[in-house]
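Quick one, tokens below. Sequence please?
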């Protein structure tokens, strides 16, 4: 723009040029985002939400995040509304094909699908892939609810219906809302988070009472023993609260427990 044009200002039909700081890239898609295999991110959306602070951030950023969060709920609810009865299967993403746990997860996914349930997982590798695989190979509904992570590999190949979320709490809400029970195989921090969050929601009657099945007694018995000998013994929970967790090594019993 010439100096004369700058002095006279924008004329009718002309667009005022944006200041440099207004031309920063912005996220255009408000709903769950699909990441391509191998794509890296400079921090996740959750991280940017939780680490931002200060009046300027609230004024210029957080209202738009509220719209994105709202859009994720709408997209997630819309995608899952017609899935039908579902059971969520959790477990380690580090479980390898060929391991007993992987084979058990395949069998559980297959059994749930044959019993008429949609199998819902986090959509990742390991136990999640195995449960989705069992459901898909049995001709059932195989659902994956992915999450944006710096190291996530994307949805596994056995997911028939996949939704990718930016925000953990939106994804967690969809797991609970569209499941009639949880089946939990051995896993790490994320798996433990799902176990305790689910049992808390049931114990406080925030959700209708539904089964939470822990598969693999060798893995879970130590945790249950500590809950009995320490947590319940000291009165931190009621004795009946531990009955909300069902422990088994039998795939057929898993299906019976969730069906009952």
């Amino acid at each position: 723009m010439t100096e004369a044009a700058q002095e006279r200002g924008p004329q009718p039909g002309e667009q005022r040029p944006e200041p440099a700081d207004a031309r920063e890239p912005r996220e255009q898609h408000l709903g769950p985002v699909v990441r391509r295999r191998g794509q890296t991110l400079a921090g996740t959306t959750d991280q940017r939400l939780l680490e931002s602070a200060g009046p300027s951030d609230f004024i210029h950023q957080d209202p738009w995040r509220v719209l994105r969060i709202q859009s994720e709920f709408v997209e997630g609810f819309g995608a899952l509304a017609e899935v039908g009865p579902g059971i969520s299967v959790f477990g380690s993403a580090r479980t390898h094909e060929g391991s007993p746990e992987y084979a058990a997860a395949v069998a559980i996914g297959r059994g749930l699908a044959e019993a008429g349930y949609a199998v819902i997982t986090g959509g990742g590798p390991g136990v999640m892939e195995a449960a989705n695989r069992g459901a898909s190979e049995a001709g059932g509904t195989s659902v994956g609810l992915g999450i944006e992570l710096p190291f996530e590999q994307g949805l596994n190949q056995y997911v028939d219906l996949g939704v990718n979320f930016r925000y953990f709490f939106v994804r967690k809400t969809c797991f609970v809302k569209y499941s009639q029970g949880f089946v939990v195989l051995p896993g790490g921090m994320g798996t433990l988070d799902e176990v305790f969050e689910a049992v808390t929601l049931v114990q406080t009657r925030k959700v209708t009472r539904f089964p939470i099945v822990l598969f693999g007694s060798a893995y879970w018995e130590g945790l249950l023993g500590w809950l009995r000998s320490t947590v319940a013994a000291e009165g931190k929970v009621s004795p009946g609260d531990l009955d909300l967790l069902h422990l088994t090594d039998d795939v057929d019993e898993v299906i019976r427990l969730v069906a009952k």
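The chain has one domain: 77-259. The chain has ten helices and seven strands.
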